[in-house]
Fold these 2 entries.
Entry 1:
Amino acid sequence: MSYIHIENAGKTFKENGQEFTALLDVNLDIEKGEFICLLGPSGCGKSTLLNAIAGFDLVNKGSIKIDGKEVAAPSDRNVTIFQNYGLLPWRTVIKNVELGLEAKKIDKAKRREIAKKYLGLVKLEKFENSFPRQLSGGMKQRVAIARALAVEPDIVFMDEPFGALDAITRMKLQDDILEICKNEKKTIIFVTHDIEEAVYLADRIVIMTPNPGKVKSVITVPLHHLRDRTSGDFLLVRDKIFDLLNMKTEELIEYTI
Amino acid sequence: MKKILSFRYVVVSILILIGIWEILFLVNDYSEALFPSPFMAFKALIEMIVSGQLLESIITSMGRFVIGYGLSVIVAVILGLILGSLPGAFKYINPTLQLLRPISPTAWMPFVVLLFGIGDLPAIVIIFIAAFFPVLLSTVSAVMKIDDIYFRVSENFGIKQPQLIWKVILPAAFPGIANSIHLALGSAWIFLVAGEMVGAQSGLGYQIIDARNNVRADILLATILVIGLIGLLLDFLIGALEKKILKAWGGEQ
């Protein structure tokens, strides 16, 4: 069985007496070390699926297993990175990175050492004593990445982590995250609604559609890291996704002589 | 704060107050014993300072204030953190709180005196009540308003109770709590005087009653001024402390 095994997973909410299906019959297998993007428009259940695998909001149909064990609660083996960072504003950058280590009862000197190492990895060692409010959005997200990696998780979940950032910062962080992945060898599940981002990052892209949220198809990106955003192959994959999401308009070409 | 209390504004503002007082003194028909001039009140103030009576009253009142207000804040914040973390339980307690909250602390006074007699305790109890409800309710609402993301992050990293309260809930709710602690200080100080007027034989509040009984309006007014001054000073101190702590907290202000 694969590392993450999702079988007939579904989730329904009851709101004002009406049943609402957020996720329907998802089947997906993810191998260790894969970079998976969950891609789709809002309401397609991609965040619901991520939260279910991460253990925050469990599915109420089917099953999700990680390493053969049913997901029942969040664990520090699988850390989530949120769009709005989730940094504690009253803690300095380094104390934020140490947060996960404190619960693991690692002693103070060792905590500091590990936190410094991971702040170095995201190139923020100069800001260890700053407060989050003094940092830009991109820097905050890098602190969150350092904090997640510091507890040495097996899986990193990312819920539209770069959604609040400007386009240029986003591209830089995409490069950073690819490089970190290459060195740290984590399994990454990454939620996004940005097609280009998905093509740039993922080994496989899970394309989801709304009403009800379900997996439309899974495509393997036949490109190697690092990718060229302007290459023909890149555009070809992007084009395929546009097609799957029915976003291509049928153009009537008129010829006049 | 620095700007509001800048020296020039303070001097002019107080001069205006003394000026109005002096004019009222000159135009009214009351006897000097009943409506003294600012200068007479000032002389009474010096008299009280020299005799040591004022210092003694201030120390007595401050002692009661620190105990009543301090205990109230500690109990209210701890209770607020617990109730805020247990919204289910809070639903059962909130109606009672809402019933007790609008009751003026002075209304409890006769009851408190009946139970504890005259002395330190009635004043302490009344200060406690005055600060308790605003701090408790603000703490509960501050805890309930904490962004869910902090709880998700804590859950993810395996931070559980009781660490969660100290590491996440208290600091996340702190700006709201600090603000209510600051506001409650003002009302606690107001009710200290009320408490001492009814339930004590010493302190600044009692000194006012004592001055009335001896028909010493000059001492009475001088005492009122001292109460105002101490209130202003306390407010300034806690305001500065609040700012300092918020800064250390790295708050989003």
Note: The first helix of chain A runs from residue 46 to 54.
Entry 2:
Amino acid sequence: MNNTTTTDEIKSFKDLFIFLRGELKPKGKIVTPFNLISAPVIIFGAVLILYRFIMGLGAVANSSSEYPWGIWIGFIVLVGVAFAGGAYVTAFVVYVLRAEKYHSIVRMAVLNGFLAYVFYAGAILLDLGRWWNIVNPIIGNKLGVNSVLFLVAWHFLLYMIAQFIEISPAFAEWLGLKRIRKFLSSLTLGAVIIGITLSTLHQSGLGALFLMAKWKIHPLWYTEFIPLLFFVSSVFAGLSVVIFIGTISYNYHVFDKDRIDPEYRQSWDDILFDLGKACSIALFVYFFLQVLVLIHGRHWALLNTAMGYWYLTEVMGLVWIPCLLFAWGVKYRNPASIRIAAVLTMIGVIINRINYSIVAYKWYLPLQEKYLPSWMEVVITLAIVFTMIWVFRWIVNRTPILCKPPVWAMEQEREEESKEGLLALSPQLGVTLADGGKLIEQKNKVNTRTLR
Amino acid sequence: MGINRRIFLKGLGMGIAGATSGGLLLPKRLMAGEGAANKEFMGVLVDTTRCVGCRSCEMACAEAHNLPVPDISDTSVFEKKRSTSERQWSVVNRFQTAKGEVFAKKQCMHCNQPGCVSACPVKAMEKRKEGPVTWDTNCMGCRYCMVSCPFDIPQFEHHSFAPKLQKCNLCWERLQKGEKPACVEACPAEALAFGTRRGLIEEANRRIYQNDGKYVPHIYGEHEAGGTGYLYLSAVPFEQIGFRTDLGTTAYPEYTKGFLYSVPVVLLLWPAFLGGISALTKRKEKISSEGGKR
């Protein structure tokens, strides 16, 4: 069985030490094209980050009085957080709607979300001129309760904690901590519900940040509905990223072979289409909202300008076309179409967020006064993204993210659920997940057994 | 089965968490500088028809705030339109208009309800009861104030290890001692007048009425962005002397008010709604599993 992480429960610190020492060793091939490119970028990026903290923001970044926010906010934070949206959407489906089928992707999505917040929301620290004061909104060195950013800051912090609770059973399973796992998994539903609430508010809150930049943002992009648009776009942004990561994990051998469960792998082919369907619907809702906003704003005369073409590229080319591609892929069971649509959607979200923070922001300035990121900003950005991928890979290669939890954990789960008279939410042995009907039947048998 | 104690406590805990975090954001605390109407804010009236472009105000400002003192005999600075910077809180610009050269001073407008104050997550930006908008060192340097300012006034020391945010503070430290702002005191042409905002609007209107046709019949700042502490008179339309005339009369915090109002509602209703869905799906499963037992 490949899903037992530790054979025995760790009983002493010595056991833990020996275990961790073994786990710290690299797994898989070390010399890969990705590693060869990313390792130097990460090291160089780390040096630049140090340089930035010593010499000040201006030594590294091109942000100016005209453009207070560059790509660290516009790309890393805004896009990173939107891309983390898959975590709350899948958690909602699996833990609140209890759709068993998607169990194989929920941990991957939540881990991605958690790391995205740690690294991408954490990148705010880079951009804060007086970063040592970041604790002020939390310790209450004056609370700006009427600030959107105050709300977003608090929600980031709380959501990071909620996501850690959601993913923590995986770590407990890795370390073989049975009692701790039991406690942590009892918190999951609460953490998920609070997490979804926080996500709703801060995904839209990031959009609300731009509401006061009313005269600085091009009228085709500025609307009082920016928060709603940001929230809806986080749904398909997050799901597209789940499609992207799932495809890489299950279809390419980037992770340790033992860490990919064959049944999960099999169920993925089916899940892909469900995700595509959800994306298509969310994109359609978003497109519809965009059309409504355009009609209400009565800015169609602006469509026939350079900025108007750019707007159409975003809304038609990177929202409407992927929406159709997703729908087409679902109808004709074409995985390639779904994958292309997911990549187009991701590009669309990146461009959308960059538009709000940079391109459509002060669009009236002449080209030479516009912001362009410095090469150092780009290197640091890449270094942060690569580090996040390294950490993600490290965790997937060690903890049960893409494979089933160890047997003891699944039994524990079943026991807890049957106490409440429920069907176990954890995946079970010998059950093909794709086969929904058979699954329920088996689950009923199992539950009946435990209930007696 | 019914509700057992654990479920009850869970629900109660969630309810309390929601209620208390909602309380943080009660609507009545939302408005920056609330009740602006019944407070006497101080302000400055700038009569651009009187300004001679001597830049004495720039020098006085720099001296009063330990900033690098500009060389005011150098008139080459007028060749380009300048913005305030992290080294200059106040700048005078020259404009070529239909009625000849016009000089206009630029600095923080000290809005009645400033966007920057409502933007600040740590209240480093504050609207003082005397009228000035001031900055404090508990600032995190997020620069959201710069994004939210309709006049692009706050300036950040990008090249410093411990950067400060630099902007005109209407000489708040002098105001507390009962003195006038340094620029007003230094003005040799009486282009600047200091007083209560209400009094200055009266004075501005008096000048418009008594000098038939000299001024455009508009006081810039009376209603712009919800009203500002600095007020301007001009003989030419304001867009000709570098002012944005498309700002509207809505106070900037109003733009985020709707979103902020919805926050406590979502915080309370969302968990309840999600908890309800979760309970329903659980109940359905329970029924089907009990059915399986039979």
Note: Chain B has a mean pLDDT of 87.
